[in-house]
Amino acid sequence: MVASARVQKLVRRYKLAIATALAILLLQGLVVWSFSGLEEDEPGEKGRQRKPRPLDPGEGSKDTDSSAGRRSSAGKRHGRWRGRAESPGVPVAKVVRAVTSRQRASRRVPPAPPPEAPGRQNLSGAAAGEALMGAAGFPPHGDTGSVEGAPQPTDNSFTPKCEIVGKDALSALARASTKQCQQEIANVVCLHQAGSLMPKAVPRHCQLPGKMSPGIQWEETRAQQPVGGPPVRIAYMLVVHGRAIRQLKRLLKAVYHEQHFFYIHVDKRSNYLYREVVELAQHYDNVRVTPWRMVTIWGGASLLRMYLRSMKDLLEIPGWAWDFFINLSATDYPTRTNEELVAFLSKNRDKNFLKSHGRDNSRFIKKQGLDRLFHECDSHMWRLGERQIPAGIVVDGGSDWFVLTRSFVEYVVYTDDPLVAQLRQFYTYTLLPAESFFHTVLENSPACESLVDNNLRVTNWNRKLGCKCQYKHIVDWCGCSPNDFKPQDFLRLQQVSRPTFFARKFESTVNQEVLEILDFHLYGSYPPSTPALKAYWENTYDVADGPGGLSDVLLTAYTAFARLSLRHAATAVPPQATALCRFEPRGLPSSVHLYFYDDHFQGYLVTQAVQPSAQGPAETLEMWLMPQGSLKLLGRNDQASRLQSLEVGTEWDPKERLFRNFGGLLGPLDEPVAMQRWARGPNLTATVVWIDPTYVVATSYDITVDADTEVTQYKPPLSRPLRPGAWTVRLLQFWEPLGETRFLVLPLTFNRKLPLRKDDASWLHAGPPHNEYMEQSFQGLSGILNLPQPETMEEAAKRHTELTGPALEAWTDGELSSFWSVAGLCAIGPSACPSLELCRLTSWSSLSPDPKSELGPVKADGRLR
Where is the composition biased (Basic residues) (predicted)? Predict the structure, then answer.
């Protein structure tokens, strides 16, 4: 009683202090909740089930060529923000304290100016502009992870020089992963808040009022008229990334002429492609590769800087007297011949061809985000707040694919005109700057009358599929991307209402048939006996890249593929040849290719150095592993006949509606997606059930399929690790089966690129704790589904968690052999095994002839094709 009375007395005495403390805690909790809301994924992505929204097939949009979509939530975190013991810059906690201490609606980061470091530049006003742009008007060269020319940090501590205000800027600071990027963001924001970053007004030199956007119609009779003066020469700027060297060679073969020039920039992250392109360029005097490389992200300011630097190079290469600059990517392809293009440009040698957005400027500015401040660092475009468009000019934009005259390129590169210098400053902090910079410079320059509103391209836009905010992991905005052309789109390539000479996009891993049709339309067919016209190979791993580019799943699969193939080589020959055909792998595979035929994935081609068990020199073999189909269509009624396929995989591409992980290789830590394709028919509701290898019902959910729905897909938020082994996904209607498929969660033999240890295997291969893949248990469905009791399988699964070394490899190989088979083996050089054919003599090997992608010597007419 005495203690209770004392407590009551203390509560009465400090009631006000306690209430104040509780209020502060509540306010801090609200702010922390607000910041966590900024960093969460989109609603419905995690933590609960939802019915998938069917993807509309959609028709091609008649909208602009601009790839900007709509504004994305700047605060939405793509990948969780993880606290660190030594958080770089201003940690989220400090930001929260700054907000709660002031109890203000606007969020701020207080300045904490350190002593001025020796040699430190205080970037402000004109000095900031000079430091940003450099003496020649180009930003100084530096690390390609950031936009060179941005205010750079001078030490490793994050010390903003001003009180940072605004949700966008604070969100960017909280999400940036490095101190350097945080410091850059802070410097940019402070300069902008001080009014010394952006030009207030820009001079306009065009004497014509308003926006200039005349067009030129295609006239077949005029196109065939003779050209006056010498034919123009073209400098092609090829901007490439990825690993599709064969498609790049096919493009180069189609556009090549000895009178033109080809300058190739390979993204700094694409080392395999760079090595291949460098080797290619050695065979042609008019093909060169940039001696420097940048990381050019979608929508980033680095892309514009890459173009400006490339233009300067092209103007200064001795002997390259070109008249027009044309930029291409590896996913472009010509739709008319070189002769037609040269004739057209020769008749319009004073014109610049750029495609405008085709809508009112105010709407374009909002949709393109030109009224927002952006900064690129950490290979991400961060939205930092609002800004004003400079007064005095007409802002325009559209497509970042263009055809420019040499005189205009010289003006952009060399002029000291304030129009160009200030627009460079403005577009250094602009989203998708290459889609607007050249348009705006030209329309406000003395050469404004040279503009033609046509970039001479056909782009396969389908906004319903292409505008899925698929770039939100690298830019704080919703962007769009064109779809790949397919044979049914060929009529669009033949439009004649305006002059067009190129089209995009084409991807041979998606559809190669349309390239065959277009190639035949331009140049005629190859001889009937030409090999590999329907085949396509694309490298996915090369030993020179090192194992760092491989995930543990791929490393496990590729090494297991080699073991399976070598075992097959020893057992698929007569007994007297067995000793000669028994090999042991030496190290990791040296290369892996994806193999397609007739636009269908045929499997992996694994190249492996081996040592014969019998005495003999080391050999190198290539092995073809083909996937085995596991789909069963079980329905018998009209509604069930709608189901065309059922697949499970990762790397789902909503634009092309396919899995980019073509082989479907996945491991315990992956997040698989179930996808269904449907024919048109009556509406239906189907139930999807996921069953793990021990007959545990992992999850179940319903999908609604409308009459015109073609594709449905959903990624259930399963707890990980997934149990390794053969999983089953069943599709039912009123609990009657429509179809089912099996997929493999691969037991890993590697973890962090090293052989799996027992303590890692014990949790990585054990499945989720208590077999709970979801918060809700679905095991009650096992009776309806007629599943066996899981006890026996669970005991075997428990034993598997203890496996390492050869025993683990045997388990992995056994699981893999249920889904993959050895379709072929060949030897790269002479082999002691009599059953092995030379790879170059096969039709499937990556070393077999591929004339459509082989360049060869220049012909008498100056061409390669």
Answer: 73-82
Cβ burial, residue 566 (10 Å; 0-12/13-18/19+): buried
Taking only the tens place, the pLDDT of each residue in 707-724 is: 999 999 999 999 999 999
Tell me the C-alpha to C-alpha distance, in Å, between residue 730 and each of 498, 629, 630, 661, 673: 51, 15, 12, 21, 13
Beta strands in 692-758 (DSSP E): 697-705, 711-714, 725-733, 736-745, 750-751, 754-755
State mean pLDDT over 151-165: 71
Predicted confidence (pLDDT) per residue in 50-60, tens digit: 333 333 333 33
Please give the pLDDT value at position 528: 87
pLDDT at residue 690 tops 70: yes
pLDDT in tens, 412-423: 999 999 999 999
On whether the CB atoms of residues 802 and 791 are closer than 8 A, the answer is: no
Do the beta carbons of residue 430 and residue 301 sit within 8 Å? yes
Q: Please, what sign has the CA dihedral across residues 455, 461, 467, 473?
A: negative
pTM, whole model, 2 decimals? 0.83
Query: How far apart, in whole angstroms, are the C-alpha atoms of residue 337 and residue 167?
Result: 52
Backbone angles phi, psi at 612, to 5 degrees: -60, 140
Instruction: Provide CB contacts within 8 A for 263, sequence distance 6+.
Output: 235, 236, 237, 238, 288, 289, 290, 310, 313, 314, 317
Preceding omega of 617 cis (within 30 degrees of 0): no
Q: Tell me the mean pLDDT in the region 121-141.
A: 36
As beta bridge partners, residue 71 has none
Cis peptide bond prior to 505, omega within 30° of 0: yes
3-class SS of residue 636: coil
For 325, 358, 360, 369, 529, the CA distances from 307, given in Å and listed in that order, are 11, 24, 27, 21, 42
| Cα–Cα nearest to 553, from 816, 307, 305, 309 | 816
Sign of CA dihedral 639, 642, 646, 652: negative
Contacts of residue 495, defined as CB under 8 A and 6 or more positions apart, other chains included, come to 458
Give the closest residue to 303 by CA, choosing from 188, 414, 421, 437.
Answer: 437
Closest CA to 724 of 799, 777, 647, 822: 799
Residue 99's pLDDT band (boundaries 50, 70, 90)?
very low
CA dihedral 168, 165, 28, 23 (to 10 degrees): -130
Worst-scoring range by mean pLDDT, 74-78, 454-458, 820-824?
Answer: 74-78
Q: Say what percent of the chain tops pLDDT 90.
A: 70
**Strands 619-627 and 820-827, sheet pairing:** antiparallel
Residue among 272, 269, 268 at smallest CA distance from 290: 268
User: Three-state SS for 805?
Assistant: helix
Which tokens is 138 given? 């180009």
Q: 675 and 661 in contact (C-beta within 8 Å)?
A: no
